[in-house]
Design goal:
The complex is a heterodimer of chains A (488) and B (95). With 488 residues, chain A is of the alpha/beta class. Chain A contains 16 helices and 11 strands. The model of chain A has no long low-confidence stretch (mean pLDDT 96). In chain B, α1 crosses α2. Classes of the chains: A alpha/beta (488), B mainly alpha (95). At the A-B interface, α10, α11, α12, α13 and α14 of A face α1 and α2 of B.
Chain lengths: 488, 95
């Protein structure tokens, strides 16, 4: 049996029945990382001995009859999530040697359930980027075509799942950073509702937009991961005190989607620069859903054309404030030659942050500075209200919104690094969900003529991940993509 | 909206960044380009619209004031770039 091909649900089944043990599964994945990750670059840190010790402990638990759902399942974590005792770099030089003293709440939950942490995956520095080219340490290559980007910012997690280096992974999404790399790497990615998952221990980029979520082989695994990570957490005052359903209940074999309505926003199809391959895969996906009984309705999100502009004010404003904490005093790198405090702050930060992070700090600082606040942050926050209202109205007409994830399949490494604005515009279909706080799911939907994976996105109203998982599972089963993983 | 090199320098100071002259030139161009795009927000009618600052829709979150366990100075200061016993050390502030 090729252990690396197992989904989380398959691994759970085999582990609990004693047909495989976690040590052999973990070792098989570590061997695969050894063999191929020099080429792919999905991981910043792999902690073999820690992973194997956790696997051994999990096997002992299983022997004693402890079958917590994640027992012995090897997972990869985006390197923006704090892991006690394991280096957490955020893809930044400024945290190059940072070892957290505590676990993020989601990491603590994985550990409590006896999961195995294989390592920490590459990302755009602090989550700022759409290609994983903004990491201070390495670039990550798309396992489907190694001269293409994996997307970003959770590109390392998406590439690790696609390359079958782990059974599943966690990413984070501030404007599409789970869904877009999932689409580019041909895997499933779910950004939950804002407040569903505790952000405690997630290093903040834009606190009102950030959310942690699963990146997995299939929709079932995403539901399984949601069952584990969703909860109210007293350590995150924005985490929601709402009931968490059993998300796997959304998944029923051969289920008709009769009675569900999917809305297609007319403004999304008018977006300039949608690749013909993406358009035709989107049309096919729509037909697959129709065949499953979904009624397609046209809807309108009238403020779509302002979403990118509002987002690229709001996110940098929050970033400029959040990243003020990196001052060389309490943790992280420090310039040791400076003679006074101000010089130390400036040198530490300029040497520690990469160009895109500095660019966003500058934009945010400018937009929040005296005289400009109302024109930029104030106005963008009002546009955010209008965008949120657009979605509320749309959900009066449909159960979920269907759209592409990104206007194009993965682009070539280096192709979009010259002009930051072009890169920002590619987030058009994903970032509104963060501004409105609603959940979004990416499911693989086909391949471009060049053989690059392309996903579709489904968005639902706040806290209605069940509808997404139900529709996503039905779609995935009906489509039944035969070549679902790349040959390395 | 044109952002001059001098303005970049002023903002960089506010953000506590020390930016090379050659980079300032590039940033001035890139920021002007980005802000030109962002200017389209001026076309939106926002009269009377309440701004949103998040999607949590929560009021103040309060909890009981219960005594907890402190991690202690060794854990708290474990990542300090420079420390002296239980204090963070920084370069001289007052001359």
């Amino acid at each position: 049996m090729d252990l690396h091909t197992l989904t989380m649900a398959q691994a759970q089944d085999l582990l609990s029945r004693g047909e495989i043990c976690s040590v052999e599964l973990t070792q098989a994945l570590l061997d695969r990382i050894d063999l191929y990750d020099d080429r792919i670059g999905a991981f910043i840190t792999v902690d073999k001995s820690c992973a194997l010790a956790q696997a051994k402990a999990a096997d002992e638990r299983i022997a004693k009859g402890d079958n917590a759902p994640f027992t012995g399942i090897p997972i990869a974590l985006k390197d923006l999530l704090c892991t006690k005792g394991i280096k957490t770099t955020c893809g930044s030089k400024i945290l190059g040697d940072f070892v957290p003293q505590y676990d993020a709440t989601v990491v603590a939950k994985l550990k409590k359930d006896n999961a195995v942490v294989l390592g920490k995956t590459n990302l755009d520095e602090f989550g700022m980027g759409s290609s994983t080219e903004n990491s201070a340490f390495k670039i990550t290559r798309n396992p489907w075509s190694e001269d293409h980007v994996p997307g970003g910012s959770s590109g390392g997690s998406a590439a690790a799942v696609a390359a079958q280096f782990c059974c599943g992974a966690l990413g984070t999404d501030t404007g599409g950073s789970i869904r877009q790399p999932a689409s580019h790497c041909g895997v499933v990615g779910l950004k939950p509702t804002y407040g569903r998952v505790s952000r405690f221990g997630l290093v903040s980029y834009a606190s009102s937009l950030d959310q942690i979520g699963p990146i997995t082989r299939d929709v079932r695994d995403a539901a399984m991961m949601m069952n584990l990570i969703c909860s109210h957490d007293p350590k995150d005052s924005t985490s929601a005190g709402v009931q968490v359903p059993d998300f796997t209940k959304a998944l029923k074999e051969n289920q008709s989607l009769e009675g569900m309505k999917a809305g297609i926003p007319r403004e999304y199809l008018e977006v300039e620069g949608i690749d013909p391959g993406v358009r035709s895969i989107f049309e096919q996906a729509r037909k697959v859903l129709e065949n499953l009984g979904v009624e397609i309705v046209e809807i309108s999100l009238p403020h779509t054309q302002y979403a990118v502009a509002a987002y690229y004010i709001l996110a940098p404003c929050e970033a400029s404030s959040n990243l003020a904490r990196f001052d060389g005093v309490r943790y992280g790198a420090r310039d040791s030659d400076s003679q006074d405090l101000l010089e130390m702050y400036k040198k530490t930060r300029s040497q520690g942050f990469g160009p895109e992070v500095q660019r966003r700090i500058i934009i945010g600082t400018y937009a929040l500075s005296a005289g400009y606040y109302d024109a930029y942050y104030g106005r963008a926050s009002q546009v955010r209200t209008l965008i949120t209202k657009d979605f509320s109205k749309a959900f009066d007409q449909c159960d979920f919104i269907l759209s592409p994830v990104a206007p194009t399949p993965a682009f070539k490494i280096g192709e979009n690094t010259k002009d930051p604005l072009t890169m920002y515009l590619s987030d058009i279909f994903t970032l509104s969900a963060n501004m409105a706080g609603i959940p979004g799911l990416c499911v693989p939907a086909g391949f471009s003529p060049k053989g690059l994976p392309v996903g579709i996105q489904m968005m639902a109203k706040r806290f209605d991940e069940m509808s997404l998982l139900r529709a996503g599972f039905g779609f995935e089963r009906a489509l039944d993509l035969k070549t679902s993983f790349p040959v390395l | 909206m044109k952002i001059s090199k001098d303005e970049v320098e002023k903002i960089a100071h506010l953000a506590r960044l020390d930016i090379d002259d050659s980079v300032k030139e590039m940033l001035s161009g890139q920021l002007s380009h980005i802000l030109d795009y962002i200017d389209k927000l001026k076309d939106v009618d926002v009269e009377g619209v309440t701004p949103s600052h998040g999607s949590a829709f929560l009021n103040n979150v309060l909890r009981e004031d219960i005594l907890g366990v402190s991690p202690g100075p060794d854990v708290t200061l474990a990542n300090a770039p420079e420390r002296d016993e239980d204090f963070y050390m920084v370069p001289r502030i007052v001359k």
